[in-house]
Hints:
The chain is α+β, with helices and mostly antiparallel strands and 107 residues long. The chain has helices at residues 15-27, 64-77, 95-104, and strands spanning 5-12, 33-36, 40-46, 49-63, 85-89.
Amino acid sequence: MTDQPVxxxxxxxxxxxARQVAKTLISEKLVACANHFxxxxxxxxxxxxxxxxxxxxxxxxxxxxxxxxAMQRLKKLHSYDTPAxxxxxxDDSDPAYAKWLSTQLEE
Length: 107
Protein backbone atom coordinates (compact mmCIF):
# COMPACT_ATOMS: atom_id res chain seq x y z
CA MET A 1 0.00 0.00 0.00
CA THR A 2 1.27 3.47 -0.90
CA ASP A 3 1.75 5.94 1.93
CA GLN A 4 -0.37 9.13 1.58
CA PRO A 5 1.63 12.14 0.24
CA VAL A 6 1.99 15.14 2.55
CA UNK A 7 3.24 18.62 1.68
CA UNK A 8 5.26 20.73 4.14
CA UNK A 9 5.70 24.46 3.52
CA UNK A 10 8.29 26.67 5.18
CA UNK A 11 10.34 29.81 4.54
CA UNK A 12 13.98 30.68 5.18
CA UNK A 13 15.87 33.94 5.47
CA UNK A 14 18.58 32.78 3.05
CA UNK A 15 18.63 30.60 -0.05
CA UNK A 16 21.76 28.77 1.09
CA UNK A 17 20.10 27.73 4.35
CA ALA A 18 16.98 26.57 2.50
CA ARG A 19 19.06 24.39 0.19
CA GLN A 20 21.19 22.93 2.99
CA VAL A 21 18.22 22.07 5.19
CA ALA A 22 16.37 20.49 2.26
CA LYS A 23 19.45 18.46 1.33
CA THR A 24 19.73 17.21 4.92
CA LEU A 25 16.05 16.20 5.06
CA ILE A 26 16.36 14.38 1.73
CA SER A 27 19.57 12.58 2.73
CA GLU A 28 17.92 11.50 6.00
CA LYS A 29 14.96 10.14 3.99
CA LEU A 30 12.47 12.35 5.82
CA VAL A 31 11.39 14.06 2.59
CA ALA A 32 11.71 12.89 -1.00
CA CYS A 33 11.79 16.21 -2.80
CA ALA A 34 12.07 19.95 -2.20
CA ASN A 35 10.83 22.72 -4.48
CA HIS A 36 12.54 26.07 -3.95
CA PHE A 37 10.64 29.17 -5.02
CA UNK A 38 11.82 32.66 -5.91
CA UNK A 39 12.32 35.05 -3.05
CA UNK A 40 9.07 36.32 -1.58
CA UNK A 41 8.32 39.43 0.44
CA UNK A 42 7.02 38.60 3.89
CA UNK A 43 5.08 41.20 5.88
CA UNK A 44 4.27 40.53 9.52
CA UNK A 45 4.33 41.90 13.05
CA UNK A 46 7.05 40.56 15.37
CA UNK A 47 7.47 41.77 18.96
CA UNK A 48 5.11 44.65 18.20
CA UNK A 49 7.08 45.89 15.17
CA UNK A 50 5.98 45.78 11.55
CA UNK A 51 8.52 43.82 9.51
CA UNK A 52 9.04 43.37 5.80
CA UNK A 53 11.70 40.86 4.77
CA UNK A 54 12.79 38.79 1.81
CA UNK A 55 12.29 35.09 2.44
CA UNK A 56 12.83 31.90 0.46
CA UNK A 57 9.79 29.57 0.34
CA UNK A 58 10.30 25.81 0.14
CA UNK A 59 7.71 23.09 -0.46
CA UNK A 60 8.82 19.72 0.89
CA UNK A 61 7.17 16.47 -0.21
CA UNK A 62 6.96 13.54 2.16
CA UNK A 63 4.54 10.84 3.29
CA UNK A 64 2.05 10.63 6.10
CA UNK A 65 4.25 8.22 8.01
CA UNK A 66 7.28 10.56 7.82
CA UNK A 67 5.54 13.94 8.16
CA UNK A 68 5.78 14.39 11.94
CA UNK A 69 9.45 13.35 12.04
CA ALA A 70 10.23 15.60 9.06
CA MET A 71 8.55 18.58 10.72
CA GLN A 72 10.37 17.98 14.02
CA ARG A 73 13.73 17.71 12.27
CA LEU A 74 12.98 20.79 10.16
CA LYS A 75 12.27 22.78 13.31
CA LYS A 76 15.62 21.71 14.83
CA LEU A 77 17.54 22.61 11.66
CA HIS A 78 15.78 25.94 11.08
CA SER A 79 17.51 29.15 12.16
CA TYR A 80 14.28 31.01 12.99
CA ASP A 81 13.06 31.05 16.60
CA THR A 82 9.50 30.42 15.42
CA PRO A 83 9.57 29.12 11.84
CA ALA A 84 6.41 28.77 9.81
CA UNK A 85 6.11 25.02 9.31
CA UNK A 86 2.77 24.09 7.79
CA UNK A 87 1.64 20.73 6.45
CA UNK A 88 -1.35 19.23 4.73
CA UNK A 89 -2.24 15.92 3.14
CA UNK A 90 -2.25 15.76 -0.64
CA ASP A 91 -5.54 13.89 -0.70
CA ASP A 92 -5.85 13.79 -4.47
CA SER A 93 -2.48 12.63 -5.76
CA ASP A 94 -1.43 10.88 -8.94
CA PRO A 95 -1.02 7.21 -7.91
CA ALA A 96 2.27 6.79 -9.80
CA TYR A 97 3.76 9.87 -8.14
CA ALA A 98 2.51 8.80 -4.71
CA LYS A 99 4.17 5.41 -5.23
CA TRP A 100 7.46 7.04 -6.32
CA LEU A 101 7.35 9.32 -3.28
CA SER A 102 6.84 6.38 -0.92
CA THR A 103 9.68 4.38 -2.45
CA GLN A 104 12.10 7.29 -1.99
CA LEU A 105 11.61 7.22 1.76
CA GLU A 106 12.04 3.49 2.28
CA GLU A 107 15.10 2.28 4.16
